């Protein structure tokens, strides 16, 4: 493995806080009697929140992400192999299944600890079909965990996506065609604390997988790879703005018909939609700028002697745009008028 590839792999391991453990550690030992006793006791029947944490091997993590990425805009799925250790679920490996589609049901009962599937471009959460699939598996095979991977947003943002929880978390945009299903089943599942681990025995397998990933990373651009995703985000944003505009029109009619109180309620709803649209525009722009910045950095690394002045100017321009984009959320905090919000959004269109 080249030094550049090795640096990138180490950076990926550090970013995901992958823990180095000994190959003779307890986590790699399988105690059949202990597992059978745990399955017979079924402590999760008495406490629905019995499991607090899930530990995933770095090898399984990389296999899930590369498989999810290979599916493009289609959802893919696979099975997780692992065991239970007290109130912790341990995922040792992942296996891709030759199934793809817009929504996937799991009907086969395998000797596995869970399943994973992808939500390309619309966040990590469980839809109605996902919840039904999970319940079906739990009825016949417990414990069983579900992992959702969003490869598009992971690559667009340049980091791993963290699912929302009760505390304030990273804002995520939900497409209009998914918004009705989003959050409807959120009380039927809960998130686990996630940690990652690897041993010296995993190193050779990780190197083999990473060599393919590293070449793909250098030779591709997220701007072109995620072109369909970005186009869909802009189209979805346009529809949300159109809905907000229609709501403002209805608010004006309500105000003229039944008085100020009814109008103020409709206006607040419209302003809330505009604020969300502004945040969606900010997030989409930042993701695009991340892709542009990655290309500029590649250009500077490999073509510095030829295009030093041009790349330096491009970096300065990207920095100025990032500063401008990061100021957009202040519009929501100061509760400016509608035309000011729309004006700020129009400034983002050239990006």
From TrEMBL:
SMART domains, per database record: JAB_MPN (SM00232)
InterPro entries, alphabetized: CSN5_C, JAMM/MPN+_dom, JAMM_MPN+_peptidase_M67A, MPN
Alphabetized PROSITE patterns for the sequence: MPN (PS50249)
GO CC terms of this entry: COP9 signalosome; cytoplasm
Keyword Transmembrane: no
Domain MPN: 54-170
UniProtKB keywords: Cytoplasm, Hydrolase, Metal-binding, Metalloprotease, Nucleus, Protease, Signalosome, Zinc
Record bears the keyword Zinc: yes
Major subcellular location class: cytoplasm
Molecular function GO labels: metal ion binding; metallopeptidase activity
Superkingdom of the organism of origin: Eukaryota
A Pfam family annotated for this UniProt entry: CSN5_C
Region forming the signal peptide: none
Localization in the cell: Cytoplasm; Nucleus
GO BP terms in the entry: proteolysis
Similarity-based family: Belongs to the peptidase M67A family. CSN5 subfamily.
Name of the protein this chain belongs to: COP9 signalosome complex subunit 5
């Amino acid at each position: 493995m080249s030094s550049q590839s090795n640096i990138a792999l180490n950076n990926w391991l550090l970013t995901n806080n992958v823990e180095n453990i000994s190959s003779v550690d307890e986590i790699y030992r399988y105690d059949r009697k202990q597992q059978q006793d745990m399955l017979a006791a079924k402590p999760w029947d008495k406490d629905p929140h019995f499991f607090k944490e899930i530990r995933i091997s770095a090898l399984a993590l990389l296999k899930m992400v590369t498989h999810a990425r290979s599916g493009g805009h289609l959802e893919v799925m696979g099975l997780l192999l692992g065991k239970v250790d007290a109130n912790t679920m341990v995922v040792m490996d992942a296996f891709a299944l030759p199934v793809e589609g817009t929504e996937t049901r799991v009907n086969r009962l395998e000797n596995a600890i869970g399943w994973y599937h992808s939500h390309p471009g619309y966040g990590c959460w469980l839809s109605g079909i996902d919840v039904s699939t999970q319940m079906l598996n739990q009825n016949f095979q417990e414990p069983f965990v579900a992992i959702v991977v969003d490869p598009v947003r992971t690559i667009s943002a340049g980091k791993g996506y963290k699912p929302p929880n009760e505390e304030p978390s990273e804002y995520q945009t939900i497409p209009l065609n998914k918004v009705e299903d989003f959050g409807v089943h959120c009380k039927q599942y809960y998130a686990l604390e996630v940690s990652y681990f690897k041993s010296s025995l995993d190193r050779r397998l990780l190197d083999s997988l990473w060599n393919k990933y590293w070449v793909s990373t250098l030779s591709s651009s997220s701007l072109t790879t995620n072109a369909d995703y970005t186009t869909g985000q802009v189209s979805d944003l346009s529809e949300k703005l159109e809905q907000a505009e229609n709501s403002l029109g209805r608010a004006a009619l309500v105000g003229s018909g039944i008085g100020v109180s009814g109008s103020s309620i409709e206006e607040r709803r419209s302003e809330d939609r505009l604020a969300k649209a502004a945040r969606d525009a900010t997030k989409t722009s930042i993701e695009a700028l991340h892709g542009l910045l990655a290309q500029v950095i590649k250009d500077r690394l490999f073509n510095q002697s030829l295009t030093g002045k041009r790349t330096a100017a491009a970096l300065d321009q990207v920095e100025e745009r990032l500063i401008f984009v990061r100021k957009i959320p202040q519009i929501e905090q100061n509760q400016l008028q509608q035309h000011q919000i729309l004006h700020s959004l129009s400034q983002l269109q050239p990006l």
